[in-house]
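Tutorial handout. Part one gives the primary structure; part two gives the three-dimensional structure as tokens.
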Amino acid sequence: MTAGLGPPTDLAAAHRSFRAAGRLLEAARAYGLRGVYDLSDLSWRVAVVAEPELAELLLDRYLRPLEAEGEFGALIEQSVRGYLERGRNIREAVRSAHVHVNTVRYRLRRFEELTGTSLDAPDTAVELSWALAARELGHLHGVRHELAAAPAVIPHARHAVPRGGRDRGPPPGSMGSHGISRSARMGNAEPPPGRRHAGHRPRPGRTAEHR
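Part two.
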């Protein structure tokens, strides 16, 4: 099962939580993920899925220039990815890649030469991370199969369905899924305002319904 969790909210704002859950679900499915995900898990990667035109522009700027280098270009991309994933700490990137530090330094310098950018610039780090995430999406779309189970959208507090698979009740004071319609919990469609029922606040131990 794949599910998106919208932020905790009161009944009057449930439609916004539902929309957020839908976008999180769309992103999780695009990345081939299984489980329950909220904004803290996917963060800006949600926007990568929603903005394919921008992704193409950033791919053109940062990654496609490396393709002219053949296999070495793939090694450059690998080193740049590791460098960013480890907070632009070159020693950590070297340790995880199991290569000499001078090798990584040369690859990073070659990246800057090919793209005309500086890896020290904050904008480069943001845009390059976006391009790398878009590249990952492209690879996944080429090999991913449809999930066997139907995904669920759950516009509810993240505590309702823990990622470990065990259900726990929402913390005191949070809104349970009983305050919105069944179609919203199942992810079929956003319930029209006139069809939402008041519901009741769940007791500790009750969970959001999902399949």
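Part three, for discussion. The radius of gyration is 21 Å. Residues 24 and 144 are 18 Å apart (CA to CA).
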